From TrEMBL:
Pfam families the UniProt entry points to: RVT_1
InterPro entries, alphabetized: DNA/RNA_pol_sf, RT_dom
Reverse transcriptase domain location: 4-124
Protein name: Reverse transcriptase domain-containing protein
Organism: Ridgeia piscesae (Tubeworm)
Length: 133
């Protein structure tokens, strides 16, 4: 089921996500991104221009995806309403519990974060990262 949803979402997302977003996208390797950065650095050094770059650790970004904003973003980009509803159903019923000292705490509803190890997670996180005016 998740793979079917991904196969429907991915082509739409590829039209929305900026070309520079390389993480977890086919045909865009870390090696290629390192090469691109090196070429930029060499070009700016050669022309004696300032170059600023930033590295952002998105390790926790997947834990902070706000569901309401994600649905609004998907609607803004005209993603099929039925597809949004199917993905929402995965998250609206999601609950979590904290496992500590060999015991599980109370279950609670989650309203942020994408599911760990879900094939949709990277695409959903990238969509939310797209800026729209």
């Amino acid at each position: 089921m998740l793979t079917i949803l991904l196969n429907r979402l991915k082509p739409l997302a590829e039209e929305i996500i900026v070309e520079e977003q390389a993480g977890f996208r086919p045909g865009r390797s870390t090696t290629e991104q390192i090469f691109n950065l090196r070429v930029l650095c060499e070009k700016y050094l050669q022309h004696q221009q300032d170059l600023y770059h930033i590295f952002i650790d998105l390790k926790k970004a997947f834990d902070r995806v706000w569901h309401a904003a994600l649905w609004a973003t998907m609607r803004h980009f005209n993603i099929n309403a039925n597809l949004i509803i199917m993905i929402q159903n995965l998250y609206d019923k999601a609950t979590s519990a904290v496992y500590l000292n060999d015991s599980i705490g109370d279950w609670f509803k989650t309203t942020v974060g994408v599911r760990q190890d879900c094939v949709l997670s990277h695409t959903l996180q990238h969509l939310l990262g797209e800026n729209y005016d």
